[in-house]
Amino acid sequence: MTVIKQDDFIQSIADALQYISYYHPVDYIKALTAAYEKEESPAARDAMAQILINSRMCAEGHRPICQDTGIVTVFLEIGMDVRWEATLSVEEMVNEGVRRAYNHPDNRLRASVLADPAGRRQNTRDNTPAVVNMKVVPGDKVDVTVAAKGGGSEAKSKFAMLNPSDSIVDWVLKTVPTMGAGWCPPGMLGIGIGGTAEKAMLLAKEALMEPIDIQELIARGPSNRVEELRIELYEKVNRLGIGAQGLGGLTTVLDVKIRDYPTHAANLPVAIIPNCAATRHAHFTLDGSGPVMLEPPSLENWPALTYDASKGRRVNLDAITKEEIASWKPGEVLLLNGRLLTGRDAAHKRMVDMLDRGEPLPVDLRGRFIYYVGPVDPVRDEVVGPAGPTTATRMDKFTEQVLAQTGLYGMVGKAERGPAAIEAIKKHQSAYLMAVGGAAYLVSKAIRAAKVVGFPDLGMEAIYEFEVKDMPVTVAVDSRGESVHSTGPAEWKARIEKRLGIPVVVE
């Protein structure tokens, strides 16, 4: 009988979570490199380059791929012949592994988990608890899959209880464009079909743990209906032209993974869960011989790319004017220099409450830009840890009031803005700039100083002031309200359909 010791299990979980925080799976890097090499959209190609450069930097520096180091999900298959030498429950051991990993002094990870989600929403400070799924199976080993799922991509999860006669393909193609770019494409779609509502969602999440192999599948041809569906959805989703970061391009998904399960005759449950550019998961097996240390991948798997900062227009944030903002063009690359404030959900909610009460804010926003970010804590000689953007649409409901009452000039974030925010940007002749999601460590290298200037009790959601040098961003919504997240995908969808000879549908 195999004996699994408590500390071996805990340390293996902790080491695996550290590992996936800075090493992309090699299959993802190879698939993204292939997509980068064939991409024709300059904006999408630039975004992919930043993700690949960031990934190699993280592999070399052992720092997080993304500032959102995720909520931990663990899948366990526990052999029936395993005996535990432990005083903690299995879930308690998993959570101790999470605690060790996220508080590791050489690579501290961001604590993003909040207790009392419908009430106080208080940060647990160590990213516990994890979401643990367990199966008891024949055998004498423990198979473990760990994943760290970012909130931006998890927020775009979708579920529908279709009628048995409905088309799954039609529903997916209708649903994916509604997900926007907050899930940081190009990534993967995990699709669960069948079972019950909760089973379909679990199948979709489990599917994301599988390796990327769509090109091999296309080369050999499908052998069943699920494989046929994978190929059909992969090709048709990429025809949508959404592209990297939603900027328009040839590749939106690197793979579509599907798992199914028998279901009730009256039902057709279907779930979609996307995996973002910070794809983080690993598998290992405990056999009683001690803790598992995953083998680092070779850096030869990464392409040799460098980011050329000379191609952007340099902007001095400390001397910015409305006239300069009005000269920016949608899709233009800017290099930000000077002082940049930060603030995301909790900070915006508190600022708006203070404005409603007529109270002064802790920092003057007049003439400033605010970056939607919750950075990782710094280690060693860093001024700040990885500091990539968070999804901007969550701040849409605050945008009109903040622009109108504070004199804020503009915002920096991830993905598209909604109609209300775009209207506010146009009304106040502001601008919204997009940083690349999945390039957090690369972005942090442009931050030369950082200090908290408001709401220190909010932790990573406090208001910081960054001193930045040549921080790369793209003009996503200009002062006239034109959004590249609308024009880019529409342009590339039309290009792809024209190339494939698909008739244009006039609506």
What features would you describe in this structure?
With about 500 residues, the chain is α/β, with parallel strands linked by helices. The chain is about 35% helix and about 25% strand. It has 15 helices and 19 strands. The strands form five sheets. The chain has a five-stranded mixed barrel. Strands 6-2-7-12 form a four-stranded mixed sheet. The model has no long low-confidence stretch (mean pLDDT about 95).
Net shape: globular
Cα(first) to Cα(last) distance is: 67 Å
Query: What share of the residues does DSSP label as strand, in percent?
Result: 15-25%
CATH architecture of the largest domain: Alpha-Beta Barrel
Largest sheet: 5 strands, mixed, barrel
Give the uncertain stretches in residue-range form: none
Q: In which range does the helix fraction lie? A: 25-40%
**Class inferred from helices and paired strands:** alpha/beta
- Whole-number mean pLDDT: 96
What's the structural domain tally? 3
The CATH superfamily name of the largest domain is: Fe-S hydro-lyase, tartrate dehydratase beta-type, catalytic domain
CATH class of the largest domain: Alpha Beta
Spatial strand arrangement across the major sheet = 14-15-16-17-19
Question: And the CATH topology of the largest domain?
Answer: fumarase
Q: State the oligomer.
A: single chain
Tell me the number of strands.
19
Radius of gyration: 23 Å
Number of helices: 15
